[in-house]
């Protein structure tokens, strides 16, 4: 194992982890608002990616408008999910809600297959083609750098937003919905807003990760860009509640996963997934409340 | 002048009626206490006034206007604020953030927000000391003070306080009750719900509920007569 090898693990891991962090942020947001793991979080991304691809490659829109269209499609899907699934099931058990979100994910995958079956290989063009740098010999593309930059910007924007009056109102509604209603906050609107933001984060993950490879239906959930499970792991590391934790958790998961590519583990099949699960188990055994949260004060 | 008028209010959960048609009035500028045992329908009454529950029949009139199906938010804007049972502070927000959110309907009126904030700290100096502390780490008494302070932030004309004394020591409960006279002096009418007859000396008038009906209305002094207290409050 050389320093270079570890350097590659770190660089590649952080860049890949940026996508996980975006997905994890959405998972944490929804969990805080609706108390459920959102199976459809990654599909917000794939849906956004498909919409952007159709706009750019089939309708011939410019890249910027295409991406905007993709993000709007993701947000629309998030709002529809809140209206048609989450709100009607608000008094149902969490398991029912969980199955509801899985239903949304499968529906989205189904629509993607049905709508895009004639196009065999879909490749979303990159924002900027080419390699930006090669630290330790790892090729870092402009696309990956931009993704990392967007993650940083999103993290700062969210931190600012959650200290603003609207952000505080969201937190209040999540912590004590009756009391929020009593001070005049519309808990209904807060729920819509949260799902909209979560879907936007998913959409960003989709349009940014998509160009790295060719994509198919279910791209971010179980396809080539699978980020749902690593995103969930990152959210678990964050105790399902901490937003900074979700960002760091995503990057950590990315790096730990890349450890599986070390030459020392060459002979081990599926080393990436193995290393990741061992790491998650170890964390959960030692700190079941997550890495970045204090034990809840009651 | 009548600020709040309840007419033939019937409220129920599913098939079970909890309030069987109650009528009462609260005059502007008084502190009124609604007494009764657990399950008498006190919380149901104030929750309906605040808009959390919808009546099956009957009306709630505030300042002469029927509140109809107005949302809790609209009622806050109209001037009704409920400090709910169990305090329900926002545990992972600071004392100051909790208070500021109490003024959500007036958030664009920074002058009023500032004035109400100062007023809340004036009523409960303890809150000023703990301004930056997370509400979930406060003691029960401090959380109750915070809940009352938060309810006052919208500058209501009518403040409803549901069971402020629940789970508090007699001394702390008294601190909260005592503030009601200052709240009244500053122009807010108070209707508090209590199981604890200890609140009586702090009220201008008392209403007593039993099994979803109003059984007594009168001035607090009359209630000090032992037989009434025994009959309705078991104390």
If you had to describe this structure to a student in words, what would you say it looks like?
Chain A: InterPro entries: ABC_transp_permease (IPR001851), BCAA_transport_permease (IPR052157). Chain A: Keywords: Amino-acid transport, Cell membrane, Membrane, Transmembrane, Transmembrane helix, Transport. The complex is a heterodimer of chains A (298) and B (235). With 298 residues, chain A is mostly helical. Chain A has a single domain (3-120, 128-286), classed as ABC transporter involved in vitamin B12 uptake, BtuC (Orthogonal Bundle). Helix content of chain A is 67%, strand content 2%. In chain A, strands 1-2 form a two-stranded antiparallel sheet. The longest helix of chain A has 32 residues, at 3-34. Chain A is globular, with a radius of gyration of 19 Å. The mean pLDDT of chain A is 90. By secondary structure, chain B is an alpha/beta fold. Chain B has one domain (2-233): Rossmann fold, CATH 3.40.50.300. In chain B, 35% of the residues lie in helices and 28% in strands. Chain B is built from nine helices and ten strands. Chain B has helices at 42-49, 72-78, 95-102, 110-123, 125-129, 140-152, 170-185, 220-223, 226-233; strands at residues 2-13, 16-27, 31-36, 57-62, 65-66, 80-83, 158-162, 189-194, 205-210, 213-219. Chain B has a six-stranded mixed beta sheet, sandwiched between helices. A four-stranded antiparallel beta sheet of chain B has the order 2-1-4-5, with helices on one face. In chain B, a hairpin with a 2-residue loop joins strand 4 and strand 5 (65-66). Chain B starts with a strand and ends with a helix. Classes of the chains: A mainly alpha (298), B alpha/beta (235). At the A-B interface, helix 6 and helix 7 of A face helix 2, helix 3 and helix 6 of B.
């Amino acid at each position: 194992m050389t320093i270079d090898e570890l350097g590659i693990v770190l660089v590649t891991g952080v860049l890949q982890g940026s996508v996980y962090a975006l997905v994890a942020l959405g998972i944490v947001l929804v969990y805080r608002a609706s108390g459920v793991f959102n199976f459809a979080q990654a599909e917000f991304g794939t849906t956004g990616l498909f919409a952007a691809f159709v706009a750019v490659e089939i309708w011939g829109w410019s890249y910027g408008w295409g991406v905007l269209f993709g993000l709007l499609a993701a947000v629309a899907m998030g709002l529809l999910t809140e209206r048609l699934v989450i709100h009607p099931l608000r008094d149902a058990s969490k398991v029912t809600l969980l199955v509801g979100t899985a239903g949304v994910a499968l529906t989205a995958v189904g629509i993607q297959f049905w709508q895009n079956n004639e196009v065999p290989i879909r490749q979303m063009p990159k924002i900027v083609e080419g390699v930006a740098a090669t630290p330790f010999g790892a090729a870092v593309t402009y696309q990956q750098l931009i993704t990392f930059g967007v993650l940083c910007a999103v993290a700062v924007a969210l931190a600012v937003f959650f200290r603003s009056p609207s952000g505080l109102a969201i937190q209040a509604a999540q912590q004590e919905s009756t009391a929020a209603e009593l001070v005049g906050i519309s808990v209904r609107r807060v729920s819509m807003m949260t799902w909209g933001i979560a879907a936007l984060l998913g959409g960003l993950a989709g349009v940014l990760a998509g160009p790295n490879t060719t994509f198919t239906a279910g791209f971010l959930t179980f396809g080539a860009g699978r980020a749902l499970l690593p995103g969930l792991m990152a959210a678990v590391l964050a105790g399902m509640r901490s937003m900074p934790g979700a960002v760091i958790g995503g990057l950590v998961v990315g790096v730990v996963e890349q450890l599986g590519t070390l030459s020392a583990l060459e002979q081990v099949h599926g080393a990436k997934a193995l290393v990741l699960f061992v790491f998650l188990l170890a964390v959960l055994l030692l700190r079941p409340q997550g890495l970045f949260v204090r034990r809840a004060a009651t | 002048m009548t600020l709040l008028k309840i007419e033939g209010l019937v409220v129920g959960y599913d098939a079970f009626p909890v309030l069987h048609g109650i009528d009462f009035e609260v005059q502007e500028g008084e502190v009124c206490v609604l007494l009764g045992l657990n399950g008498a329908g006190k919380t149901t009454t104030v929750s309906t006034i605040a808009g959390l529950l919808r009546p099956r029949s009957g009306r709630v009139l505030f300042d002469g206007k029927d509140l109809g199906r107005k949302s809790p938010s609209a009622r806050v804007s109209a001037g009704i604020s409920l400090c709910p049972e169990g305090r329900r502070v926002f545990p992972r927000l600071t004392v100051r953030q909790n208070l500021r959110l109490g003024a959500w309907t007036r958030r664009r009126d920074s002058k009023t927000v500032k004035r109400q904030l100062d007023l809340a700290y004036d009523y409960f100096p303890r809150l000023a000391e703990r301004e930056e502390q997370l509400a979930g780490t406060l003691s029960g008494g401090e959380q109750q003070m915070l809940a009352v302070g938060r309810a006052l932030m919208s500058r209501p004309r009518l403040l409803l306080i549901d069971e402020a004394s629940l789970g508090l020591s007699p001394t702390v409960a008294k601190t909260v009750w005592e503030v009601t006279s200052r709240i009244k002096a500053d122009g807010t009418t108070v209707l508090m719900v209590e199981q604890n007859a200890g609140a009586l000396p702090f009220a201008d008038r008392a209403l007593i509920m039993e099994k979803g009906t109003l059984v007594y209305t009168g001035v607090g002094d009359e209630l000090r007569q032992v037989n009434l207290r025994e009959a309705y409050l078991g104390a």
